[in-house]
Amino acid sequence: MSGPSTYEPKTGIEKWLDSRLPIVRFSQDTMINFPTPKNLNYWYTFGGILSLILVVQIVTGIVLAMHYVAHVDYAFESVQRIRRDVPWGWMIQYIHANGASMFFLAVYLHMFRGLYYGSYKAPREILWILGVVIFLLMMATAFMGYVLPWGQMSYWGAVVITNLFGALPIIGETITTWLWGGFSVDNPTLNRFFSLHYLLPFAIAGVVALHVWALHVPGNNNPTGVSVKSGKDTVPFHPYYTVKDGFALLLFFILFAVFVFYMPDILGHADNYIPADPLVTPSHIVPEWYFLPFYAILRAIPDKLMGVLAMFASIGVLFILPWLDTSRVRSMRYRPVMRWFFLIFVGACLLLGYCGGQNPEGWVLHASRLATVYYFAYFLLILPIVGLIETPKPRPASIADSIHGDRGKPRSDTAATPAPAE
Amino acid sequence: MSEPSRRDFIYIAAGAAAAAGGALTLWPFIDQMNPAADTLALASTEVDLSQVTEGQQITVMWRGKPVFVRHRTPAEIEEARSVDVSGLRDPATDQERLVPLSGGEYQPQFLIMVGICTHLGCVPLGNRSGDYDGWFCPCHGSHYDTAGRIRKGPAPKNLEVPGYEYLSDTVVKIG
Amino acid sequence: MKSDMMRVFLIAVALLTSTTAIAAEEEVHAPNQDWSFEGPFGVFDRASLQRGYQVYREVCAACHSMDYMYFRMLGQEGGPFHDEDYPNPNDNPVIKALSAEFQIEDGPDDLGDMFMRPGQTSDRFPAPYPNDNAARAANGGAHPPDLSVIVKARGGGADYLDALLTGYKDAPEGEEPPRAGLYYNEYFAGHWIAMPPQLTEGRVTYEDGTEATPEQMAEDVTTFLAWASEPHMETRKRMGFGVIIFLIILSGLTFLAYKEVWRDVEH
What we know:
heterotrimer, B: alpha+beta, 4-stranded antiparallel beta sheet, 3-stranded antiparallel beta sheet, 3 helices, C: mainly alpha, two-stranded antiparallel sheet, 8 helices, 4 strands, about 5% strand, disordered N terminus
């Protein structure tokens, strides 16, 4: 952990325990006394929110697994039984289903925050890469979870996604057959998806532990991107950030509750209330909203193999992001040119999300192609080039300075000296 | 500047509300393991006694457990009634182990009991087995008499009599 | 195996392109209606639920199953025949009588034969056909969908269902059914539906004396099916109200605590 431990065991028992298993020292250093930049804004609360959603998903998931039957003949009915007959089953099932959406909503905000404030840059490359690993595991978990209710969208989503692997030359067929455990999506597929859907969240929890470990070595980034210089820049994590994260968490849970209790099906698809039928394909097949941007990239490219590769590359590129950004400045607050490209990038992602839910024809197809090009250009061209030619705005000497500096000024980064034209 | 008491009040109120909310949230996750509505709907079963001939025992499923329905012979009934109740481990007269018809009279030939040994849950053997011509549990050697009362062995109680009622002379509803 | 793989591959390719073809079909949007159960405080109109059950029972049930519905559900809290005197719906005499109207196959008995007995509260709604193939064969190749979750299983929900039931019209000039035995319906995707118009004037005789117009019957049965799709909807909304109020209060308190904690820190 960063900095020497400040924990001092007082009682005899504490000393006894500390010399054998320093768990109290560990908790004190990581969760209570941990020095945290005092200028973190609400965008920085999503890490805490995400850990709690993971807990909610695991707890509700374990409960649902007590009632769910992973068999093609009973899966749909067992979900209906959970909703109708199991005490509180309807609520727990709605929490779990909507929890997946809340998870992705929070993770996207968390990732955009990391992109904007340069949280992926040295010395936090491993932290970022572990985050991308978590994101990949989440996608796999969510996909397999969506198959379990065995509705029409479950089934056909599984068919389409597993067929993506069929695009690989030579080994494609072997891989899809292996994934299915048969010659089509069927009972063996459902069983293994259930098994993995139960396993992967614990893998996520493990990587989250590594993610937090990697966070605690360099400590938090902050909106200025300026590294912590002294104790004046920080406050102890508890109570300052426990209470702030707690407040943000509650606001987020209000949103969560509105979905669970007042529009539990709005993020889902009506066709998933029709039991899976391998003979009838739904007329309009779409993945869950959180996969739509990637689905749009897949469909933007007219070649099957290239489309699949582009979709995987769109996540793969995140792994090398720390080495693509050539700027010495972390936070886009002080990058007057790059921040515009970032805003357009957010727009492109939203546009991709929209296009993923529409039929790929007409302007939608063109728009998704344009957005796909921009998505890759952002990482592979704009970040490396702009980093070299952009003149950053003057940065504060320290976090404490940035706070004092803001006082009395009309609050904003644009109030600083105008960016010299180049 | 507000005095420390205001600060304390806010902390305590927020902490208490959070703790109460957390505790309330626990309940659905505990309650979900209780029997679901479909399980509860199957919690009673009906038995037609006219199909059980004298000296015969049938076993019916009730709430996932075996229930013994025995049509006792007069000899068995006599055997059960001749016992001195005060010397028993779990004292009960034969009549106390029966349920009357809606009119109040008894049908002592029909003995209905949950077929689970009160020791550790095994199913005792029937057909006049054991030292007392009733039931004998092979797991740990408990002997029950012709009224299903514990007579010898480790079991602490008589075989349980489920709640049941006679819908007619020949039909009982268990549960 | 090769051909199986090929088939699946073709299905997948077709899937990725099929959406294009579908979009060409124009669909008439079902008109938005006011339902008793809409909105954050909406509850089901109990009388309408009871009438709706009657319509389902006397009309729809001839062809449509409701596999995930059990008689006992009619008497549970929020159900059409709920009675506060019988918190356990299995004891409710109305529900017992409703279920006993049906003969249910049970068994095997001691001789190994199946037998018929009067329905109990723990029985499912009996299905009109023994299996899907029988259902198709009896309906000109079209499978009457199960209605247990139909309101959730159709994009337009209750509005769509109500519109569909009353949306039969004469086909516009020049439009011919793709095959015989289909009926023109404004709201059905593709317009040609295998279900004949059902809700004709006075098709059922309501016990409460309500006039059985087609619109009334459509509204009642839709209300019933909306309830059946989510029998716990009223509990859900009620719980949600409490949960959200609690969260707002707690977040208010937490905000005050946050301000107190940070009061002496410049940030």
